[in-house]
Design goal:
This protein is α/β, with parallel strands linked by helices and 142 residues long. Helix content is 32%, strand content 22%. The chain is built from three helices and seven strands, in the order βαβαββββαβ. A seven-stranded parallel sheet has the order 3-4-2-5-6-1-7, with helices on both faces. The model has no long low-confidence stretch (mean pLDDT 92).
């Protein structure tokens, strides 16, 4: 059963949400875990790919966009729209509008919501979905 954590940001800024996601990914990577960023589309994939190169001077988080082919090494963060491949199911940061399709196979799912009404509405739907699946959910107001 996955561990579900919702991070509720005080700002309604999507760029601040994405920056927060990068900081979480840095923690995931530095702790030696695999991480997967679930996004809605290729534009969002490309945005997160670029942001991981620039979000903090001097920071380096190996990453690549996942298009269904297994990466040549497992020591990187993957970004994609597809379900996370097995090693990367350990920690999924969900930036998409929906629950991960394979959420029951994940170890941890980190949901990051900005404070906009649209984000909160979609977040509530995901929260209910996890709750109805019998999962324990932790909420962090940032």
């Amino acid at each position: 059963m996955p561990e579900i954590s919702f991070y509720i940001l005080s700002s309604d800024s999507v760029p601040e949400r994405d920056l927060f996601a990068c900081k979480l990914l840095e923690k995931v990577y530095r702790s030696g875990n695999f991480g997967y960023v679930l996004v809605d589309d290729s534009q969002q994939s490309n945005h997160m790919d670029a942001l991981l190169w620039t979000f903090r001077p001097g920071s380096f988080i190996p990453h690549q966009i996942y298009l269904g082919e297994s990466p040549n090494s497992t020591d990187k963060i993957l970004i994609g729209m597809l379900p996370a491949p097995t090693p990367w199911q350990q920690t999924v940061i969900n930036l998409s509008a929906n629950c991960p399709a394979n959420f029951a196979d994940c170890g941890r799912i980190l949901e990051i919501l900005d404070n906009s009404e649209a984000a909160k509405t979609l977040g509530r739907a995901r929260y209910r979905h996890y709750q109805q699946a019998g999962l324990e959910i932790t909420t962090h107001k940032m």
